[in-house]
Amino acid sequence: MMATTRIASNTTQAADLLAQLSGTAPLTQSLPEQIAARLSERIVSGAYSPGQRIMEQTVAEEFEVSRGPVREALRLLEKEGLVIINARRGAQVTNPTISEVNEIFDIRAMLNGLRDRLVAESPQRAQLVPLLEPEIIKLAQTADNPGAGDEYIEIVLRLNRLLTQATGNRRLQAILGSLAVQTVRYTRLGLSTPQRRRQSAQNWQRLLRAIRDGDGDTAERIARQRVIDSRDAAAEHLRAQAVNTA
Amino acid sequence: MMATTRIASNTTQAADLLAQLSGTAPLTQSLPEQIAARLSERIVSGAYSPGQRIMEQTVAEEFEVSRGPVREALRLLEKEGLVIINARRGAQVTNPTISEVNEIFDIRAMLNGLRDRLVAESPQRAQLVPLLEPEIIKLAQTADNPGAGDEYIEIVLRLNRLLTQATGNRRLQAILGSLAVQTVRYTRLGLSTPQRRRQSAQNWQRLLRAIRDGDGDTAERIARQRVIDSRDAAAEHLRAQAVNTA
DNA sequence: GTCAAGAAGATTGTTGACAATAATACAAAC
DNA sequence: GTTTGTATTATTGTCAACAATCTTCTTGAC
Questions:
Q1: Which residues from chain A sit within 8 angstroms of residue B104, using beta carbons?
Q2: How far is the CA of A80 from the C1' of D20 (A)?
Q3: Whole-model pTM?
Q4: Closest-lying nucleotide for B54 based on CA to C1'
Q5: 3-state secondary structure chain A
Q6: Structure confidence at residue A80 (pLDDT)
Q7: Whose CA is nearest the C1' atom of nucleotide D12?
Q8: pLDDT for the residue numbered B143
């Protein structure tokens, strides 16, 4: 199914979701980082299913490297919350319960609140508005299009990246990036219906106004609500799925 | 100065600040974790100064292990934010600017807010109050004692650990633990005067009331204020220090 | 048929050596 | 005296082999 994939030399083409979401795209990636990016892609896309074990030797052979860099890559993925590593039992893809997913969304809600407050209260917010506005308009246009789920998600990710970078708070960037990676598949679920997308687009429009007005309180409130809406929508879909498969 | 320190076999005695703050004390620590704990201690205590390089070979020789576990230990410390690792340039102790410290405090403020709201709104909060109350009373008694700074800090750390564990939110535990490690030295600065300790103790008393009443909004507000107070006090001390040394 | 004990196999943890790269010291030119 | 280029050294990155541990399969007893 998967082509044998030599990583070593030039790998600029590998779509690096992890770095993309984190907002930090270094010019040259180390070997462990490249391996982590490839594995991350497979986990987020579902090619590796939740609970599945990832064996060092297997990965090492596939990428034609030794186990050392693979080990480090797995630790990076653990940091991102994509795998858990048990002593002497190796790594396996995380399989969070609904309640754990909710917990992650709770943290995202708070930190998105902080982020959007910081942006709204920043002196440079005026420069950011022209960047956000066209995207948010596009968002509203895309919301009603039934098949445009992926495009909608793309725009949302771009908006989040813009806002996160605008704070200049590196640590916040890192944490939010990590949490985004862990929840992206659920966010996708939550935005699958036009109705939910319209609700989401409206939230973004209100956020834009709050930022333009420099209203930090409102920006924080909307940001929190936005994530909580997303959380509830995802939870509903997960419940529906569970009923279907049962 | 430092005695040669074999880690290998039995090392339960090593005071493990990192695990202590994280609230997670595993029964058996892996070799990299033990090394990380020892190094963490030195960084937090100031034995390793900010900006100082930590070389793998040196550490490996001191602990009589190979470089592999040391490498992993350094990655763990990077995750905790205690060192930064540059490609092919190794690890050095982080040397955050005042503004970066402030950023970390901002994140802590938000997540402490979430934590204390969750506790206040939890059905099991009644069981927690009897655990918190005696500590908070002790806090008020210790506040005025001019020389009891360390004891005061100890109680605050214990209280934070109790609250963090009470949420049951593992991810929140991990993030807050990591942030606590990074800010503990500044928290210590901020609580060095009896006046500030009285202010702090009063905040804790109000938080206890909010938790007992199940008032999540108030609990969140107080928690945020508490961290922000701490942040401002630390910043003031850092400014004063900078003036003195200049 | 079920469970327990033990052996065989698979997998992670650790080590020491080698390769690649960055930091440093020194020398020569301006 | 300063700067630039070069050679040396120091340090990290990677590898393959070995040790320790866990999993699984088989065998035997009840």
A1: 171
A2: 29
A3: 0.86
A4: D11
A5: CCCCCCCCCCCCCCCCHHHHHHCCCCCCCCHHHHHHHHHHHHHHHCCCCCCCEECHHHHHHHHCCCHHHHHHHHHHHHHCCCEEEECCCEEEECCCCHHHHHHHHHHHHHHHHHHHHHHHHCCCHHHHHHHHHHHHHHHHHHHCCCCCHHHHHHHHHHHHHHHHHHHCCHHHHHHHHHHHHHHHHHHHHHCCCHHHHHHHHHHHHHHHHHHHHCCHHHHHHHHHHHHHHHHHHHHHHHHHHHHHHC
A6: 92
A7: B88
A8: 87
